[in-house]
Amino acid sequence: MRTPIKLSVIVPFYNEQDSIGALHAAIVDAVAPLQIPFEMVFVDDGSKDQTLARAVELARQDHRIRVVKFRRNYGQTAAMAAGIEYAHGEVLVTMDGDLQNDPADIEQFLHKIDAGYDVVVGWRHDRQDKLVSRKVPSVIANWLIGKVTGIPIKDNGCSLKAYRASVIKNIPLYSEMHRFIPAMASIAGTRIAEVKVRHHARRFGNSKYGLSRIYKVLLDLMVIKTLASFAARPLLWFAFLALPLFLIGTGALTYALTMSLVYHAATSLPIAGSGVIFLTSAFILFCSGALGELVYNLSGMREHDFARLTQRVDTRTAAAETAAR
Amino acid sequence: MTERDAQVQLSVIIPVGKRYSHVRELYGEYVLGLESVRLTREFIFVLDGPHPQVLAQLEQLISEGTANIMVVCLSRPFGESTALMAGLERATGEFILTLPAYHQIDGRDVAKLLAPLDSDDVAIGWRWPRSGGFLEKARRAVFHGLVAWVTGMRLHDLGCGARAMRRRVLEELSLYGDQHRLLAVLADRKGFRVTEVALRQSDRDRFEGVYRPREYAHLVLDVFTVFFLVRFTKKPLRFFGMIGATMCGVGALVVLYLVFGRLAFNQSLADRPALLLSSLLVVLGLQLFALGLLAELIIFTQARHLKDYQAAEIIEYPRSSDQQHSHESRTAAVS
Questions:
Q1: A81 to chain B: which residues are within 8 Å by CB?
Q2: A51, A84, A218, A295: best mutation site toward chain B, by most B Cβ within 10 Å?
Q3: Are residues B220 and B290 both part of a single domain?
Q4: In the A/B pair of chains, how many CB contacts fall below 8 A?
Q5: What ipTM was predicted for this assembly?
Q6: Domain range for residue B288?
Q7: Which residue among A99, B32, B259, B264 has the highest number of C-beta atoms inside a 10 angstrom radius?
Q8: Would the pLDDT of B114 be above 90?
Q9: CATH code: domain of residue B96
Q10: Do A78 and B302 touch (CB under 8 A)?
Q11: Shortest CA distance to B163 belongs to which of B196, B188, B189, B130?
């Protein structure tokens, strides 16, 4: 068998016919001196220009390239996920196809992974983008994501990231999760490091990702937050949701009953009715929680599977203990 | 079985549901229409429920020595999608052509459907020019307009049963319920290239009578299905959360207004039905939100089976060890 591949560089391309050749050269220049077996996974995200043809041409010349072809444009998350799926390396590095990331930074990512981190995130500390349309929303979004998920990463949007393959391949990535990969990865208790990376202004083509609508980010954040903390305990989620309703409902009912029983006033229909509505709803929410438990139970997904991905077993101590006995 | 073998290239599946014509005549028409096509073919009739007359006609056809006909009988009506899948299970061809069991399109045009399959994966028939009164035309325009609005696909005739596709398409879609009508949309979502082909309408495709409310309900449900499938399958909370948050917000505002009235102007809460309405809104909003969360949990736990991309091909050139194949890319059809 061939030597195991240490590093896979994953690059999604969408209409980047001018960049792909230069990027390939830059990656090879940056990684070849490191003297490790590596490969490149180029994902063509349904480009309409010559990107695919050029990628295949490159692959013909350089056998370290694998090209994953999509039938149509699926978006960046899907392209990254496909790249991750079809990469064989121990360490996976993802980067943008538009030359804004510098492959020369890959080396420091590798050092961090070797130092024991599972996920290394790039931080474009000297960002070469327009201030108002790109930088300001990004700062706000990153602050928000950090606050909600509890993982203070300064730059979630930087595509240049490195992962330990055994960890990232087992974390569900879907929809538009590429903004939140570190947060998703934290479900498995990953050790996350951040390194400063160089960032270049765009040389070719146009930027594809503009301002995104804020409510989407907010809802996505809420999903990740709840999933990360409660996925294994749905009954708890729903109990939290149900509790205020239960309290209001009981309060309203008690009030209505006291009024009619103790003070012999006429029973107030709206108040008693509201109480009943709230109580019923609390009950249904609780039942939804039970349904959630069922879903989780049947899914075959287990928390300890995630824990196993990142756990470390200190065998020396274990051996010493047996010897001591 | 007779000489049905792996040489079949084109499988024609005809699901026979509630509406059907004289199948012998229809078969003859289709065979004539397919004469120009240079593909070895088989016909698979799927009887969706007991249709003794049709079965008798087909048996007669078979006993007369017509080759490459197969009849699959389903024990009860399961619906067209299931019938198609049952037919697919028996089909051996690389290309699948589904045809209506009644005179819907002009049989002479059937071959037109197969032409685009060189470059596209799915070709959907479209009856044109089409008969029908003003009301029916308006109804169709509204329906297809809605579909176009939701999916961004400008389709003209989802009701046409004539569709040609590569085998892989139908295998990957695994249709159920009423999805056969949405085949074009679903295939497009999976990343297949879909095209529409105008076919002449059969003179006998006349609809007599009035559409019942049920038919309209079907159309509306179709649009809803497309809407959910296209927009929200991967992001349920975006949908449920949006509606839920709006309801909850409106309800909370009304409650606040009532409480304010009670505290500031001493208006009694006890005889205000608005309180009931607002608490209903709050509660309903929360319930919807909870449903969204539950849906997210399902997606999250099943994410590994719900890949949202299809790799059409993996292209890589072998390393130096097997240089002799270096001019052939490895092609993997990834499911």
A1: 307-309
A2: A295
A3: no
A4: 164
A5: 0.78
A6: 236-302
A7: A99
A8: yes
A9: 3.90.550.10
A10: no
A11: B196
